[in-house]
Amino acid sequence: MAESHVEPTIEVVDDPASLARAAADAIARVVHAEGPVTIVPATGETPVDTYAELADRHARGAFDASAVSVVQLDEYVGIEREDRRTLFGWMDRTVLTPLGIDARRVARLPTDGDLVAACAAFDAALAERGGIDLAILGLGANGHLGFNEPPSDAASVTRPVQLTPATIAANARYWGSENEVPTRAVTLGLSTLLEAGEILLLVSGEAKHEIVRRALEGPVGEDVPASFVREARGSVTVLVDRAAWDGQ
Ligand code: F6R
Asked: Is 7 a catalytic residue?
């Protein structure tokens, strides 16, 4: 029997500031519900204002992350774990420290040794502890989710990946030049992400117009990995600003 899926809720907001407030509200709803909560926070530019809004609420005593555990979404392979340019370093500065989340409550992706085996063990441990309650995701200009680059299918597991030229070009801004960007990474697999209780996909800016429409309105398939959010197990909310939705 074919599985039925609930359509994503698409919420179009005026601008990035409204997006950050709406995203912070959605995250707070999950985090402030009863009991421990496991979240996956994307790095990148889109959620920066959302995390800053949460940090601001935290500083005012209006956001409490004491029940939160964090699972890392993706990470570069081939740079020192202490390097501030790791995605963990970025997450630490932007999410963990501002929200008072202790590093002991963070599951950090493996980046050396037998990565296929270590990623499988990571998936197994995550499933064992009950999986992801909330995945806060961004949308790559090439349709990736995490570092699930096209083509990635819905059954893909947490694994080492080769970054595509499009992603390397997009990330060059953090590294000075394309030559400096690591070409390998590890990412939570789509199958892991699609099992999350809730997915919050944040999309901002005109440059994401074409890909957000393809992801939500085009065919579901591995050429646009983000299109698989339409087959997620849990609820999916896409918060998109008008520039991204309308393309102007
Ligand atoms: C980041 C990540 C990526 C980004 C995506 C959008 O951890 O996994 O999938 O979410 O590339 O990046 P921005 O928000 O910088 O446009």
From this structure: no
- Is 171 assigned a catalytic role? no
pTM of the model: 0.97
Q: What is the pLDDT of residues 68-106, one digit of tens each?
A: 999 999 999 999 999 999 999 999 999 999 999 998 999
Please name which of 106, 144, 149, 151 lies closest in space to residue 126, comparing C-alpha atoms: 106
| Distance separating alpha carbons of residues 179 and 124, to the nearest angstrom | 35
**Is residue 214 situated within a structural domain?**
yes
Residue 148 lies in a domain: yes
Domain at 76, CATH number: 3.40.50.1360
Q: Assess contact for 219 and 232: CB atoms under 8 A.
A: no
**Distance (Å, rounded) from C-alpha 231 to C-alpha 223?**
15
Whether 248 is covered by a domain: the verdict is no
Burial of 158 (0-12, 13-18, 19+ CB in 10 A): buried
> What beta strand segments (E) does the chain contain?
9-13, 37-41, 68-71, 74-77, 106-107, 134-138, 159-162, 184-187, 198-203, 235-241
Residues framing ligand 1 (Cβ under 6 A): 42-46, 73-74, 87, 138-140, 144-147
Choosing from 53, 75, 149, 198, the catalytic residue is: 149
Domain of 31, in residue numbers: 9-233
pLDDT band at 6 (very low <50, low <70, confident <90, very high): confident
Tell me, rounded to whole angstroms, the distance of Cα 45 from its chain centroid: 11
